[in-house]
Amino acid sequence: MERNFIIFRGLIAGFVFCAIAIATGCKGGEVKQVSKDVVRKKLEVYAPVNVAVPWNLLDKNQTAVLEKLYMSAKEIDKIFLRQVSKRNIEVENILKEKGDKYLLRFFNVNFGPWDRLDGDNAFYGKELKPEGAAFYPEDMTREEFKLWLKNHEEDREEFESGYTVISRDKDGGLTAVPYSRYYGDLLKRAAGYLIEAADLTKNRSLAKFLRLRANAFLSDDYYQSNMAWMDVKDSILDVTIGPYEVYEDRLFNYKTAFEAFICVRDPKESKRLEKLKSYLLKMEENLPIEDKYKNFNRGMSSPVSVVDEIFAAGDTKAGVQTLAFNLPNDERVREAKGCKKVMLRNICRAKFEKILLPIAGEVIDKKQLPLVTFEAYFNHILLHEFTHGLGPGRLVLEDGTETTVGKALRERYSAIEEAKADVGGEYNFYYLIREGVFPEKLERETAVSLLAGFFRSVRFGVEESHGRANMIAFNYFRKKGAYLLDQETGLWSVDFEKITEAVKSLLHELLIIQAHGSYESAGSLIEEYGNMGNDVKQSLLKLAKIPVDIIPGYSIEEKFESVEKE
């Protein structure tokens, strides 16, 4: 899933932000703050997009259900704000008192005082953002955590759980606190709104999911509600809400962050893409690894939803906006039912028109520029999400340890998994074209559109997993001669004779790393291919006047604003 990227410092000419230190009075001592003009310029790197609600598609009952879902999602915003930093609420209150609308706006965009598009540099305050966010004590190191588990093996399950916060006890030791207790009041309110929505809706499968998810908020057991989410059918309201992704936890990628998507589903377009489900087993069989490493145990139901996002909350709204997602991440659910692919069509369209096409015009060879198309861009995103559900999942290591790919690769997992999804998405695109699912013209279009998309993604830098994944693929393809740079024009192109084999070769390496659960091999691949060269930096300098991302303005907030204030 594309989210939470970090911009490469100094690449966006005109938006290279010099931190202008201004001393302000505040509890706890001197606080450094960038100037109002700098904050205003930081906001200008986002292209504003109005996100409308198709009220004409919703009846009175569905509108009433939507109101309750919106209220629950607003609680998710509050929870995630606390997950990012223990001091976020205090800082937010200070900014409200200061009355600086630009500073407060930028704080809300980033869910904290660190600029997610500028290497998490602080724009208010002097403290560095903790690698473990607020999931762990700020003074806790990786070594302390590992040593604790070595000496307290009985704590491992709770400590490595995605649904606990690690705190210090009164003696200075470590203890795991369940989410349901740590965020208790907020989760109770969020659960209450979900129950109210379940009582209102006429869709039985949606009502079942909402009730089970409300129970999960209070019990920390998300399995049954994740299973029920997979079974939601014939609902025009498409709802995803809960703790899912682990990107915010940069210490171990263990702890899940809360997020919510409230969307309106397009039944016709979703049905058109549903036929891809019948190819899941064939795509698994076609992976370029030995059969013993392939995962035929996962469920293959894997529903596909094409939706228009009408509100987002929490982790997904912080920084770079999500284009699509593939959930749940629970391997037990994936083995039983697969995973659901949700395509945010209106967000994809906005990014393509406002960002990708202008970027392509600056960096792609003019002869290949017409090959950058929305059809190729949108369908590669879809296949990126499908590919997340393919390949190794549960592992038995050489020493007999039973684990998962994510736990074996630890903090290196996200970069390897995102690279697998990107490269595997292209690989599966080529396969489905040969199978006649997609027209042959898309073979070249997807290759060039992915190259253009690379320059869109790495503008966010390579320090975070998605940017690192893009850089791995780019450098690998460049080494194989599949990506070419014209030294005279400074424009990039694809060698169509080499790209197919290069894609297959890299996907094989990524899958083998996952199949072996090799933490060391993951590190070696990241070290060799995960860094940005000067040629890429020079190309990125051309993109100074192009927005880095979009910033949605949700019209739903205007309609339900009076309800929210009550």
Tell me the strand order in the biggest sheet: 8-9-10-12-11
DSSP E strands, number: 17
Q: Count the helices. How many? A: 23
Kindly estimate the percentage of residues that lie in beta strands according to DSSP. Answer: 5-15%
Rg from alpha-carbon coordinates: 23 Å
Account of the 3D structure:
By secondary structure, this protein is of the alpha+beta class. Among the domains are: 1-44 and 86-126, no CATH class; 367-532, no CATH class. Helix content is 49%, strand content 14%. Helix 2 (60-84) packs antiparallel against helix 8, helix 15 (374-388) packs across helix 17 and helix 15 (374-388) crosses helix 18 (442-457). Mean pLDDT is 90; it is low at 2-29.
Keywords:
566 residues; alpha+beta; five-stranded mixed β-sheet; two-stranded antiparallel sheet; 23 helices; 49% helix
Would you kindly provide a brief summary of this structure?
The protein is 49% helix and 14% strand.
Summarize the SSE layout with pairings.
Elements: E1 23-24, E2 31-32, H1 36-44, E3 46-51, H2 60-84, H3 88-98, H4 101-110, E4 114-115, E5 121-122, H5 142-151, H6 156-160, E6 164-168, E7 174-178, H7 179-182, H8 184-200, H9 204-219, H10 223-230, E8 237-243, E9 258-265, H11 267-274, H12 280-285, E10 304-314, E11 324-327, H13 331-337, E12 340-344, H14 345-363, H15 374-388, E13 394-396, E14 402-404, H16 405-409, H17 413-434, H18 442-457, H19 465-479, E15 483-485, E16 492-494, H20 496-516, H21 519-529, H22 534-540, E17 549-554, H23 556-565
Parallel strand pairs: 3-17, 10-12
Antiparallel strand pairs: 1-2, 4-5, 6-7, 8-9, 9-10, 11-12, 13-14, 15-16
Helix pairs in contact: 1-4, 2-8, 8-9, 9-10, 14-18, 15-17, 15-18, 17-18, 17-19, 17-20, 19-21
